[in-house]
Amino acid sequence: WRGHTEQGDARRVIELLNCILRGKPLVAKEVTVYLTDRCQLQGCLHCIGAERIEKCGAKDLDYQVYQRAIRSLSGIDQINLAGGEPFLYGGRLEKFRELLHFTLQHAKKVEVYTNAFAVPQDYEAAKRFFDYLFQDLAPEDRKRVTFVVAIDDEHAKQYCHLQRDIKNSIEVLVRLYEEGEIALRFYLTYSFVVLH
Predict the structure, then answer these.
(1) Looking at the predicted structure, is the pLDDT value of residue 87 above 50?
(2) pTM of the model
(3) How many Å from the N-terminal Cα to the C-terminal Cα in the chain?
(4) b/e sequence 84-120, b meaning 16+ C-beta within 10 Å
(5) How far is CA 134 from its chain centroid?
């Protein structure tokens, strides 16, 4: 709902928004929602919100707008929650938890794209973190959520700058995955700039 579209796609985006505003149900198999500009990391080259954050500060998608938009869609197989850092939505984990529970009522599968910075590096604390997110959900609902950890050279540089060991975070997440606590996958990218 935010970001760059090719000129040919602009008409389809406008049609989608018009249908949402008129309350007509739309069929969408997969939807990606940028929930927030909030992020612990700053200045990543790939960040689509960096310029706006610099000018206006971090913003969150209004929860009622999100609910209305999701309810207007039908047949959703998957909703991808992205940002910024989705765990920072609303400034409190409680707000993200509420949004996640709502989302699970409207999609067969949910993917949460994260830099993993909000996840505690201690195993027991991380387990409590995810138990809190999944509190009051049935075990089968918990299995419908996959956490996608985006790791790239920009994130790695910032982890080092902030004196946080990304290796510890990954080890904790992998252990939680291996013990069946969470579904997990990694999204790895590497970029480089050639200077002349």
Answers:
(1) yes
(2) 0.80
(3) 36
(4) bbbbbbbeebebbbebbeebbeebebbbbbbbbbbbe
(5) 16
